[in-house]
Design a protein that fits this description.
By secondary structure, this protein is α+β, with helices and mostly antiparallel strands. It has three domains: 49 residues; 77 residues, Thrombin, subunit H (Beta Barrel), CATH 2.40.10; 92 residues, Beta Barrel (Thrombin, subunit H), CATH 2.40.10.10. Helices cover 27% and strands 34% of the residues. The protein is built from five helices and twelve strands. Strands 1-2-3-6-5-4 form a six-stranded antiparallel barrel. Strands 7-8-9-12-11-10 form a six-stranded antiparallel beta barrel. The longest helix is centred in the first third of the chain and has 43 residues. It is elongated and about 100 Å long.
Length: 278
């Protein structure tokens, strides 16, 4: 039998040997555990959501308002209606066969298959009509309807863009004096151009350009309009069409704007192509 001291020494040597053999494994396990704990701590600090207070939200909103320039109401209205606005040219043959422009104005797509509203006086003297869409596509257009009492003509384009949009129309029933409006068109052929103003009056009367018809129930507005705006849309701040620009008033009989324009309510204009009233 081995002495007791020798037995104790043998057991101590055995534990030491075991520790030396397993130490690498223990070190790896300990390292892995530390790595997992660090990863959990990082995830908690960086990825797990933390509750936001109302003060946090208010500061974020204020910072956005201070650093971001928001589009104006007129800019938003213009961008909404712009894809539906076209340039209209009334053309006739010149003495040597060239095209002569006898009328220039604006049109509004109200049916996405290419039905367009414009003013009768824009195309009345033309032998044929050309329209230019917002994407630059040009097309000949046929006059398929007339409503002289409202100075309106209905056009049908022969070729239309694949992604043509019809304008959004809105009833004038709740339109009020002072409401913001934007006129979009091609004044003097320049455009598309936008001008902003307000509704100046309702249910106005004005004689048509040919002097043969008394137009009634017109919208009076003060957004700048000039020759070439005729047939273009008068839209609300939301970009919804409430009228078709048809005339300007100038006591001197000059063809420039002095602050009074008239638009046919969209209900009358839509009726010209058989669209139901609002």
């Amino acid at each position: 039998m081995a002495p007791a001291g020798a037995a104790k020494a043998g057991r101590g040597a055995g534990w030491g040997s075991l520790l030396r053999r397993t130490w690498p494994v223990l070190a790896v396990c300990a390292g892995a555990l530390v790595a997992v704990l660090l990863a959990l701590a990082y995830a908690r600090a960086h990825f797990l959501p933390h509750p936001y207070t109302q003060e946090d939200i208010d500061r974020a909103v204020l910072r956005t308002l201070e650093t971001t320039t928001l589009p104006s109401a007129a800019a938003k209205a213009y961008e909404k209606v712009r894809p539906s606005v076209v340039r209209v040219q009334g053309l006739s043959a010149g003495p040597i066969g060239e095209d002569i422009e006898v009328g220039t104005g604006t049109g509004l797509v109200i049916v996405d298959t290419g039905t367009i509203l414009t003013n009768l006086h824009v195309v009345a003297s033309a032998d044929w009509v050309k329209v230019v869409f917002a994407d630059g596509l040009e097309s000949e257009a046929a006059v398929i309807g007339l409503r002289p009492e409202h100075d309106l003509a209905v056009l049908k384009a022969k070729i239309v863009p694949d992604d043509l949009f019809a304008a959004t129309m809105r009833s004038t029933a709740d339109l009020a004096v002072g409401d913001q409006v934007v006129a979009v068109g091609f004044p003097f052929g320049i455009g598309p151009s936008a001008s902003a103003g307000v509704v100046s009056g309702l249910k106005r009367e004005f004689h048509s350009q040919d002097g043969k018809h008394l137009m009634t129930n017109l919208i009076q507005f003060d957004a700048a309009a000039n020759p070439g705006n005729s047939g273009g849309p008068l839209v609300t701040a939301e970009g919804e069409v409430v009228g078709i620009v048809t005339a300007i008033l100038n006591p001197s009989h000059q063809r420039v704007f002095i602050g009074i324009g008239f638009a046919v309510p969209i209900e009358n204009a839509a009726a010209a192509v058989g669209l139901p009233p609002f």
